[in-house]
Design brief:
Strand order of the largest sheet: 6-12-11-10-9-7-8
CATH superfamily of the largest domain: NAD(P)-binding Rossmann-like Domain
Bound molecules: zinc ion
Number of strands: 21
Number of helices: 14
CATH topology of the largest domain: Rossmann fold
Radius of gyration: 31 Å
Largest sheet: 7 strands, mixed
CATH class of the largest domain: Alpha Beta
Structural class: alpha/beta
CATH architecture of the largest domain: 3-Layer(aba) Sandwich
Distance between the termini: 82 Å
């Protein structure tokens, strides 16, 4: 191993591996060691047909995801990188000599991305042969550039987002068996492009000989799914039966459709329709997390208008002030989570619940209205009329004391009503309350109409997470979180023994009441 140069904080080493094969390598060690060293074949062209070697000759010896190493141990980390790269090359070389190119064609897309000039364009839905595909291309042929520079801005199905670049017809050609990528370290040649187009079939060949600019998107099978890659090029007619491809520019696509994006998080789309009734600080967070969790349909119900007063604990911001909460939340989540079906219902809970067909389309009803009386009424209706839905109520204690969630469902013992014991009486106290009854904690800055309950965005979010876990079927019955009581104590508030039990982490999961008018009969 010999040192070549130290530049821009990178130590460059030349190394030759002797055991097994002979590899001339260049190792680039960042100083300080904030990343793992990069290992290249000194001559990129030696990598042809080798898996885990990109177009520039870089050897992929580690996936770099959470690799743990001592950043002060330069010698050992460098030796590790060198040894790992050598064993990757040995393995790849054995496969190449057996003409086993599966690993290489499986990573075709990654290789394609490493070709100089390769760029990425958004694609909103999986490509299909029978759907008209268009592309917007930026073509730069200023004299100073020396050659025409092509860049694909986006692919679409007929609705361009950027009006500055006109839509051009693009073509999608699925390959039925995988091909090998172009040679390492060399620009894509006319010969290789002819080979690719031939694999694309007769339509690709017919299209490619037409004069002008072409946008070709290809797919080829890999062990799991498809590789997607594309190429921009211009066909010049040089004479009768003489054509040439120029400005050959590779591109890849950013998959922007829901199933792919969800899969990237380790989740899958589930057939689950949730209605969030009450889109305030808690309901807004519930909707946001459910939208990202794989639930495939959301209905948002709220007749209230979002105002500046809500901003510091709501998922929505200033731009939504003056708009109905359900509509503003739908707009926010639709742009955040493409492909998710979201309906806004800017009406009261009672009005929406009277629309039986809509309600029956839902699997789960989340109640985050902040109105205990309303939610008890809905719970009673649900049991009296044998609703099949899971009902999930979530609410907060003031001053960060905690939050509660109750899952109720017809046919199961234990429901929201079980948490009360005032049937026929006038004291609406709740058995699981953290504050002893009769203490007022609501605040008032501007007068009677301006009363509010003191809690922060973090408290709303913590409660929303519990509700989401329940909605996704990971929790049933009663659950809660109990926070720090110092703010409450400093205000002289008295706490219940239930709070103390919950704070110690021993809340009883079974809160069914044998005399409950809803679920006990
Ligand atoms: Zn009950």
């Amino acid at each position: 191993m010999s040192e070549v140069s130290t530049e821009n904080g990178t130590l460059k080493l030349n190394a030759a591996a002797r055991e097994g094969g002979r590899w001339n390598l260049e190792i680039c060690v960042p100083i300080p060691l904030t990343n793992m060293p990069k290992v290249f074949l000194a001559n990129a062209e030696d990598g042809f047909g080798l898996a885990h070697v990109d177009h520039k000759g870089e050897v992929c010896y580690s996936d770099q995801e959470g690799e743990s190493y001592d950043p002060t141990d330069l010698a050992r980390v460098t030796a590790f990188a060198f040894q790992r790269a050598c064993s990757v090359l040995e393995e790849a070389s054995k496969k190449r000599s057996k003409r086993d190119f599966r690993a290489l064609t499986d990573e075709f897309e990654g290789y394609w991305q490493s070709i100089p000039g390769c760029h990425r364009a958004n694609l909103t839905a999986p490509p299909v042969s029978d759907r008209a595909l268009y592309g917007q291309v930026n073509k730069d042929n200023r004299p100073g550039l020396g050659k025409v520079s092509l860049r694909l801005l986006a692919l679409n199905y007929g609705s361009p987002k950027d009006q500055k670049a006109p839509n051009r017809k693009a073509h999608y050609f699925p390959l039925f068996s995988p091909i090998l990528p172009p040679k390492n370290g060399q620009a894509i040649s006319n010969e290789w492009l002819i080979y690719l187009i031939k694999e694309g079939g007769i339509e690709a060949q017919k299209e490619s000989v037409k004069k002008g600019l072409h946008i070709f998107l290809f797919s080829q099978p890999r062990s799991e799914g498809l590789s997607l890659f594309g190429v921009l090029f211009e066909t010049k007619i040089l004479g009768k039966n003489k054509k040439e491809f120029r400005s050959i520019t590779p591109f890849t696509v950013q998959r922007c459709w829901r199933d792919y994006l969800l899969e990237r998080t380790g989740q899958i789309s589930a057939r689950h329709h949730v209605a969030v009734i009450g889109c305030g600080a808690v309901g807004g967070r519930v909707a946001e997390h459910l939208a990202m969790s794989g639930v495939d349909e959301l209905t948002l119900v709220d007749d209230d208008v979002f105002t500046y007063d809500n901003i510091y604990r709501h998922v929505l911001g200033e731009g939504s002030a003056g708009t109905n909460k359900s509509k503003a939340l739908r707009r926010y989540l639709s742009s955040k989570c493409p492909g998710l079906k979201i309906t806004a219902e800017p009406v009261s809970a009672e009005t929406w619940l009277s629309r039986t067909t809509q309600v029956n389309n839902c699997d789960t009803l989340v109640l985050t209205t902040g109105k205990p009386g309303l939610e008890r009424h809905i719970n009673r209706e649900a049991f009296a009329n044998r609703w099949p839905h899971r009902l999930i109520s979530g609410w907060l204690e003031p001053l960060g004391l905690g939050g509660h969630v109750m899952v109720s469902q017809y046919g199961q013992a234990g429901c929201l009503e079980c948490l009360y014991s005032d049937w026929g009486g006038s004291d609406p106290s709740m058995r699981v309350s953290f504050l002893k009854p009769g203490q007022s904690v609501s605040r008032n800055i501007t007068g009677c109409g301006g009363r509010f309950m003191p809690y922060s965005s973090i408290h709303a979010a913590r409660t929303a997470l519990l509700i989401c876990e329940a909605a996704l079927g990971q929790k049933s019955g009663y659950s809660c979180w109990a926070g720090d009581a110092s703010s409450s104590r400093s205000e002289g508030l008295e706490l219940t023994s239930w709070y103390e039990r919950c704070r110690e982490g021993k809340p009883s999961g079974d809160v069914a009441h044998e005399a409950c008018p809803c679920c006990s009969s």
